[in-house]
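name: query_chain
kind: protein
chains: 1
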Amino acid sequence: MKWQTWFSIEWQQVLGISLSALGFYLGLMLFTRLMGLRSFSKLSSHDFAMTVGIGSILASTVLSDSPSLLQGLFAVAVLFVIQGVISIIRRKVKPLKSLIDNQAIILMAHGEYFSDNLKEANLSTSDVQEVLRKNGLKSKSEVFAVIMETTGDMSVIKNDNTPPDWSLFDDIRDSHLLIKPDNSLS
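structure:
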């Protein structure tokens, strides 16, 4: 019966999958050591694309005869090189940084939603409310800001008695929205 093939595996397949997985794992460890800790970070959208790409190559390499282990490792090496080149460009050529990276955006500040920014991020107030609840907040008044980071993650910054260090918000689009009219920059 056809359904029985879903539950069967031959010893050659077990050996092949095991050796491919081990080889791929060792290759990833080597590439990560060579290229640095950023390799699997989620600091930007291209970091996320790198992680997804490696996962896809890993799956196809380990679970099938084609691509071979060496082809899969070569493809991953190329991704690491591309990520390294993009990281250098981002650091050294400032005008290109804005073309490569997304910019963080303010979704909410001082309990007020910014509908234009929510619309641009393709989010609803309900999406932000979910994040607020997950952060243990009971009231919008507890929120200094909700920021959609370059990775798509949302940072929730709570109100407290500590005055803000405005330099932490320099790279956020519309950061001026964080300043209440009665606040000063001093």
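note: The mean pLDDT is 87.
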